[in-house]
Write a structure and sequence with these properties.
Shape: globular
Number of helices: 28
Structural class: alpha+beta
Number of strands: 34
Helix content: 40-55%
Length: 970
């Protein structure tokens, strides 16, 4: 009976075995197909964009590097294991412990002999595959024509060759070391190495193998130590980045000596392989370790401690000078134009007469505040949205350049009221519609922006352009568009007043085709949606759009670029295009300061930095555009002298177009990139000092001021701002990016120390960049004159009696007061500060309205309804120029003006210079006093839990606020 049961069990197992094998095979095939589908969809994506070469080059390079890494690790380790086993002593007498080990290992020996090399080879292959960029850059290295100041080598050696040599040496060291470990383990296990009493016996075969491997390892270390001489030029020390006095006179020579000693000891190991005496290599190894301690570490320490530190300023001067020159060159600030700006603080009448063009262009619309306003006025439907932070651009209107705050109306599928079906999410709600642009220097009488382009369909002064936005920063994950000619339109285009909604069909070439069953299956698997495969709405003319973010698309076709944080939209040649700045970076530029990119571009002081993004070289080498309608990506070579870009152009030829092909319309919207400017700002905080002695003493450190609008306890820094302005010494205004500096170091001074601007006007002639574009101008403020910095000016605004009282009261009532960006302009022989003040009610659908403008010059401030009125009040009744919002003051805008939620500044007493409001000061003071008393009563009632008294005090507070508003608005 038991025999029959056994036969039945065996038969069952035999029947189940083919089924298990089949299921496993099917599972493996399914996994492989998923992997294939992912790769194939990537291929279709790149093919449609015309950048197939970028993908295939990466694939080929990755595969080749994986195979090289696998073979380079697996073969030596396999060879070491095989030799150690085959050359083992056949009749070796082993102790009982080794016998037991052999019994355990022997059944797995064959698996281990092959499995260990394969496993190590896989790890090495994957590691090598990630280094494809380093290898290709080494193979295609482009000379820079610039030599380092220490060894006289071309800088390309540090950018391209040194990183490659380091990775090769590290990989070779790992291969030889693992081979040596495997050899030692096998020879010991099988008796080639025996410890008999106090005597260590090694067979001849094991001796030769171990000695040769040890010699090769030491020879690699000798080369590594020799190469480490050059690393001193990119290492960051306690004082500078680059070789200091101690490095040049102690570290570099001792590394050369240690390399020689290591090579000599390696030769001793090779000799031992043949003569069989271990004494010499053992002594040599001990000598190498002692030398590493004495001359490698102790000697440089002695030089630094007893020679350099007592005379550091004099001895380090030439090396500090190298660091200053190379740092300024690496970050593109070596040609900054420095101007001593003897800023006046006296607001004299007519002071702005010579700055009339700048004054007329001052931007009073804050792009960070009016997103809610634009959304309420221009969204129209809940399935549209605008970015929470708008962008600043400029357009030529009637022959004059106008700064504009711009935003794209993008699709927001979450705003669809009903549950979003697959048809709606993938086929109907596919794209946004239109670009909205507001004049940066104008406002309506009720505080709303004045639009130069708005509405659905889009109307305005920007001319005719394709308004549909299929590719944007907030596009759906994927959409399926396109259809046969004459077919019904299914894509929602825009809401229409007459028919309710207008539909359209995409007619461009924007994504891979779904014209066959296989492609449908691939994308159904990719997006985990069977409807893509089954739906009748997916036809042979359908295209699938995905990876639609402009930055994401550029990053995929140009993986070697570091992209700017902000992609901004512009209307160019009848299309909405996204413009993105691309940077080439390195952390291997000799003698250049190393900085954290993430920290430098952050608007937070002391932001956490990561070693992976440490850089000491940066160039804005590429300008990229992404068409908002068809997603086409175009790369333009902006800095064709950049050696890193030249190298990548050899790797990916024909992917970057020459700048000469850039159209004039596109050039007119190109701007100086903000992230590069932030990095340069970070560098210039210390490297604006070019004298080595002053640099060493840290007597003139600068820092970026804190953001005046930041909440208490925040570490936010004031961001740079785009403005059209005329810098001192220039003949005409230019679209520029600027930032300010205040004294750094341990003091708490907030006076203005410096003012940096970058010319962002690239011109409008095809293929020709304006000579002024990118010009950096640094205004140095006099140290004997106190020019208020942004923090001081904001404090003056907040502490002015009439201004602060009214604003504080408004914050407690039914409205909220929002301070806009505090702009700083070098006009009138001094520094003019301008800050728009917005008022927003507390309702759910409320949005900020520009109601007042604060201005300051020196120690005087003014607080008026318009910038034009504020400037006249500030400069003795006549500023000498007109601001762009003069039309509001002249009553040309007949929109009804809502009650103002802010007040004019009153006399603060003393010599504050504040202007006097145009309302009876005694009446306003009485009302403010009533409001203040109501606030105190309200607070006391809340603390006491007397809600009747609380309600009564709240009523009195609101009544006082209304009376104050009536007084201020006449």
């Amino acid at each position: 009976m038991s025999s029959a049961t056994a036969r039945s069990s065996n038969a069952g197992r035999k029947k189940r075995a083919p089924l298990a094998i089949t299921l496993i095979s099917v599972g493996v095939l399914v996994v492989l197909f998923f992997i294939f589908a992912n790769f194939y969809s990537d291929f279709l994506w790149f093919q449609q964009l015309g950048y197939t070469q970028v993908l295939t080059t990466q694939w080929v390079a990755t595969i080749v590097m994986f195979l090289i890494g696998f073979v380079a690790m697996a073969v030596p380790v396999w060879g070491a294991l095989q030799l150690a086993y085959r050359l083992r002593p056949v009749y070796a007498k082993l102790n009982s412990q080794l016998d037991r080990y052999q019994e355990l290992v022997e059944p797995l020996r064959r698996l281990g002999m092959w499995g260990i090399p394969v496993l190590l080879g896989l790890f090495a292959g994957f590691s090598a595959a990630t280094s494809w960029e380093t290898v290709l850059m080494w193979l295609n290295a482009t000379p820079t024509g610039q030599s380092d100041p220490q060894f006289g080598l071309d800088v390309s050696f540090y950018l391209f060759q040194l990183p490659f040599f380091r990775e090769i040496l590290a990989f070779a060291s790992a291969v030889v070391l693992l081979s040596l470990i495997c050899t030692a383990a096998v020879t010991f296990l099988y008796g080639s190495i025996q410890l008999v009493g106090r005597e260590l016996r090694i067979s001849k075969a094991a001796r030769i193998q171990i000695a040769v491997l040890a010699g090769v390892y030491l020879l690699i270390q000798a080369i590594s130590v020799w190469v480490d001489q050059y690393l001193t030029l990119t290492e960051t020390g306690s004082l500078i980045t680059g070789a200091s006095f101690t490095d040049v006179n102690a570290t570099i020579p001792t590394r050369a000596i240690l390399a020689g000693i290591a090579a000599f000891v390696a030769i001793l190991f090779f000799v031992t392989a043949f003569i069989g005496r271990w004494r010499l290599p053992v002594i040599g190894t001990a000598l190498l370790l002692v030398s590493a301690l004495l001359i490698g570490s102790a000697y440089p320490w002695v030089v630094q401690r007893f020679q350099v530190e007592p005379n550091e300023r004099a001895l380090e001067q030439p090396y500090i000078e190298r660091n200053i020159d190379m740092t300024r060159d690496a970050f593109g600030v070596s040609d900054v134009k420095e101007v001593s700006y003897d800023a006046t603080t006296d607001a004299e009448p007519g002071a702005l007469r010579s700055d009339a063009e700048t004054t007329a262009s001052i931007r009073i619309i804050d792009p960070d505040l009016i997103s809610a306003t634009v959304t309420q006025l221009e969204r129209f439907k809940t399935y549209y949205q605008f970015s929470p932070e708008l962008d600043v651009d400029r357009y030529t209107i009637d022959g004059e350049v106008q700064d504009a705050v711009v935003a794209v109306r993008e699709m927001n599928q979450e705003g669809v009221k009903d549950d979003l079906s697959w048809v709606n999410s993938s086929l109907v709600y596919t794209h946004g519609y239109g670009l909205v642009a507001a004049y940066g220097n104008q406002r309506s009488s009720d505080g709303e922006p004045v639009f130069m382009q708005s509405g659905i369909p889009s109307t305005g002064v920007l001319g005719e352009f394709e308004p549909r936005v299929y590719f944007g920063e907030n596009s759906p994950t994927y959409s399926i568009v396109g259809g046969p000619k004459g077919g019904s339109d299914v894509e929602l285009d825009y809401p229409s007043g007459e028919s309710g909604e207008t539909y359209t069909t995409f007619s461009g070439d924007a994504g891979p085709k779904l014209d066959n069953i296989f492609n449908k299956l691939v994308y159904a698997l990719k997006f985990q949606s069977e409807q893509i495969f089954l739906s009748d709405n997916v036809n042979p003319q359908s295209q699938i759009l995905y990876d639609r973010s402009p930055r994401e698309r550029v990053q995929k076709v140009a993986p070697y670029l570091t992209l700017d944080s902000d992609a901004y939209p512009s209307v160019v040649d009848g299309r909405i295009v996204w413009i993105i700045d691309g940077y080439t970076t390195s952390n291997s530029f000799p003698y250049s300061k190393t900085t954290s990119l993430s920290s430098a571009i952050s608007n937070e002081d002391g932001n956490q930095s990561f070693l992976l993004d440490d850089i000491n070289y940066m160039r804005n080498s590429v300008k990229a555009t992404v068409d908002a309608y068809d997603g086409s990506v175009t790369l333009y070579s902006w800095d064709d002298k950049d050696p890193i870009l030249q190298t990548w152009q050899k790797i990916f030829p024909s992917t970057v177009k020459p700048m000469s092909e850039m159209g004039g319309d596109l050039l007119s919207h190109v701007r100086y990139p903000e992230d590069l400017f932030k990095v340069q700002r970070d560098v210039l905080q210390r490297y604006h000092v070019t004298d080595p002695n002053k640099w060493y003493s840290d007597s003139d450190l600068w820092k970026t001021p804190a953001d005046p609008q930041a909440q208490e306890g925040s570490s936010a820094l004031q961001p740079p701002y785009y403005l059209s302005m005329q810098m001192p010494g220039e003949d005409h205004p230019a679209y520029s990016l600027y930032t300010t500096f205040i004294p750094g170091g341990g003091g708490a001074s907030s006076v203005l120390a410096g003012y940096l601007s970058a010319n962002s006007n690239a011109g409008n002639t095809k293929g020709e960049v304006s000579d002024d574009y990118g010009k950096l101008t640094l205004l140095r403020l006099p140290k004997d004159t106190t020019v208020p910095g942004p923090g001081q000016v904001q404090n003056s605004f907040n502490s002015d009696t009439a201004v602060s009282n009214l604003i504080n009261i408004l914050k407690q009532g039914q409205t909220e007061v929002l301070n806009g960006n505090l702009l700083t302009l070098p006009v009138g022989g001094g520094l003019l500060y301008v800050q728009p003040v917005y008022v927003q009610s507390t309702g759910e659908t409320s949005y900020p309205l520009l109601q007042k403008v604060l201005v300051a010059f020196g120690d005087k401030i003014a607080f008026e309804d318009t910038l034009d009125e504020a400037l006249d009040k500030l400069f003795g009744g006549d500023s000498g120029a007109q601001a762009g919002d003069q039309a509001v003051a002249d009553g040309e805008n007949d929109t009804e003006t809502p009650p103002d939620d802010s007040g004019d500044s009153g006399d603060t007493g003393g010599d504050s210079g504040s202007t006097t409001p145009d309302v009876p000061s005694s009446d306003l003071a009485d009302v403010l006093a009533d409001a203040q008393k109501a606030m105190e009563d309200k607070k006391a009632a809340m603390e006491a839990g007397d809600w009747t008294a609380y309600g009564e005090a709240d009523t009195r507070l609101n009544e006082a606020i209304q009376k104050a508003l009536e007084l201020i608005n006449g």
